[in-house]
Write a structure and sequence with these properties.
Layout lengths: L5 H26 L2 H12 E7 L9 E10 L4 E3 L12 E4 L5 E6 L5 E5 L2 E8 L2 E10 L6 E11 L1 E2 L8 E11 L11 H4 L2
Antiparallel strand pairs: 1-2, 2-8, 3-7, 3-10, 4-9, 5-8, 6-7, 9-11
């Protein structure tokens, strides 16, 4: 078989895996346990959290934040800009509202990795993935504790094949303080000093 036919084999593997996952999903729904199964499958390959660069935020100000995803050993996920059109990109979504808006997301460039099913190499993330984001706090937000919820959507693969696309939810607690309260840097392991 020549190399121009290899990407179609990957497409067929992904379609077969998606069809299999859909069939399993139907069985799980009929059994009454759809949410537990999704968390178990997604959680084994990726976990995610969102953190701030400071211990609190001020009304009307911008704040640095980041989504930190831990990709399980032996797996990788497609980069935000995948190498091939048919690959599923990694993507963040946020449930913003009147209090907060995410005004910028800086997806890192993927690492080119050659795989048995993609000898030309694919742009992927593996290990610890940090995706910086800029958070805008509305000027009318009063002091208090809030939560920003979001999701990371991805397609995990190992050396031999890809798995059905998945989504993992995360929630970040946000403390809003008055503008005259000094903010303290936190999460230096993500943002540096």
């Amino acid at each position: 078989m020549n190399n121009t036919q290899a990407p179609w084999r990957t497409v067929l593997r992904c379609q077969a895996a998606t069809a299999l996952a859909a069939g399993i999903g139907v069985l799980l729904i009929l059994s009454g346990a759809p949410w537990q199964a999704k968390a178990a499958v997604s959680g084994q390959r990726l976990s995610a959290k969102m953190v701030l660069a400071t211990n609190a935020v001020h009304p009307g100000a911008a704040a640095r934040a980041a989504v930190v995803a831990e990709i399980a050993p032996g797996y990788h996920i497609n980069a935000h800009v995948p190498s091939l059109d048919y690959l599923i990109p990694t993507e963040l979504k946020f449930a913003t509202g009147k209090q907060f808006d995410v005004t910028g997301i800086s997806y890192p460039k993927g690492k080119l990795q050659k795989l048995s099913f993609a000898p030309q190499g694919l742009s992927v993330y593996e290990g610890r993935l940090v995706i910086p984001a800029l958070l805008k706090v509305a000027s009318g937000v009063g002091p208090g504790d809030y939560t920003l919820q979001g999701t990371i959507s991805f397609q995990a693969c190992n050396e031999n094949s890809c798995f059905p696309p998945a989504t993992v939810a995360f929630a970040m607690p946000i403390r809003v303080v008055r503008g005259n309260v000094q903010l303290r840097p936190v999460n230096a392991d993500v943002f540096g000093k």
